[in-house]
UniProtKB/TrEMBL annotation:
Annotated gene: panB
Pathway it works in: Cofactor biosynthesis; (R)-pantothenate biosynthesis; (R)-pantoate from 3-methyl-2-oxobutanoate: step 1/2
Keyword Cytoplasm: yes
Gene Ontology cellular component terms for the protein in this record: cytoplasm
Catalytic activity: (6R)-5,10-methylene-5,6,7,8-tetrahydrofolate + 3-methyl-2-oxobutanoate + H2O = 2-dehydropantoate + (6S)-5,6,7,8-tetrahydrofolate
Function: Catalyzes the reversible reaction in which hydroxymethyl group from 5,10-methylenetetrahydrofolate is transferred onto alpha-ketoisovalerate to form ketopantoate.
Protein name as catalogued: 3-methyl-2-oxobutanoate hydroxymethyltransferase
Residues where 3-methyl-2-oxobutanoate binds: 45-46, 84, 114
Localization, UniProt: Cytoplasm
Family according to the record: Belongs to the PanB family.
Length: 277
């Protein structure tokens, strides 16, 4: 099957078919997300944490995100691939934002970009969309500004903050976003935004009332041990499975149980005889 047309997402909202989005960071995860039927793949700047070992998304660079996006677009065919614009790649000016958005499309094969925030960022959205690159918005908990928000915590939990969030969402739609991520916001607020917007909303920690859901690859698969946010559902425990498998390999090497004959190349008898002479 060919690429999912971006306009199908609005049609999915209209017909009430939920949109399934997941992050991916390399060719195999892109290929597997495609095989599993995901509609949208986000090359999230969460890669800074899940793949690169940082403790926030702030250090992610354009160069890193381009490498990861190229790998994902080599692996994924049908899903829309959205590249997450890293911190510093769009805040400075509309011009820089457009330049970097175009790099994701032209140099890395992305179908769209995502950027965090409203307010000053509305102008960035308008400029990037004007240049012909579809933009996904992101409001609520915006990890690139977690420090300013006072940490990784749910947003829009007072009537006033919730109203501001609704205003931001409407403004992002007006600025030209084709879709909007709502992260860590109370479910009634996300449901209200979803009802008011013509574009599809994609929730993460935003309840069941959004038009789609997104989860981080490593969270969904249980690819690391330790604390997971409330909104994560783990569908596998791959960190445990990987540790078991690698431990079994290490033990086999130490005990000389691996390799066995089946893993080993032979040589014609006469050649062996000549060689050993
Ligand atoms: O970087 C990321 O993975 C994200 C999603 C959580 C929406 O922005
Ligand atoms: Na992100």
């Amino acid at each position: 099957p060919g690429k999912l047309p971006i306009t199908d997402l609005a049609a999915m909202k209209a017909s009430g078919s939920p949109i399934a989005m997941i992050t991916a960071y390399d060719a195999p995860s892109g290929r597997l997300a495609d095989a599993a039927g995901a509609d949208v793949i986000l090359v999230g700047d969460s890669a800074a944490m899940t793949v690169l070992g940082h403790d926030s998304t702030v250090p992610a660079t354009m160069e890193e995100m381009l490498v990861l996006t190229r790998a994902v677009t080599r692996g994924a065919r049908r899903p829309l691939v959205v590249a997450d614009m890293p911190f510093g790649s769009f805040q400075v000016s509309d011009e820089l934002a457009v330049t970097n958005a175009i790099r994701f499309v032209k140099d890395a094969g992305a179908d769209a970009v995502k950027l965090e925030g409203a307010g000053t960022m509305l102008s960035r959205v308008h400029a990037i969309v004007g240049a012909g690159v579809p933009v996904m918005g992101h409001v609520g908990l915006t990890p690139q500004s977690a420090t300013a928000l006072g940490g990784f915590k749910a947003q829009g939990r007072t009537a006033e903050k919730a109203r501001q969030l609704v205003e931001d969402a409407l403004a992002l739609e007006a600025a030209g976003c084709f879709s909007l991520v709502l992260e860590a916001v109370p479910s009634p607020v996300a449901a209200r935004v979803t009802e008011l917007l013509g574009i599809p909303t994609i929730g993460i920690g935003a309840g069941a009332g959004t038009d789609g859901q997104v989860l981080v690859w490593h969270d969904l698969l249980g690819l690391y041990e330790g604390h997971a946010p409330r909104f994560v559902k783990q569908y596998a425990a791959l960190a445990r499975d990987i540790t078991r498998a690698v431990s079994a390999y290490v033990a086999d090497v130490r005990e000389r149980r691996f390799p066995e004959d089946v893993h080993t190349y032979a040589m014609p008898q006469e050649e062996l005889a000549l060689f050993e002479k």
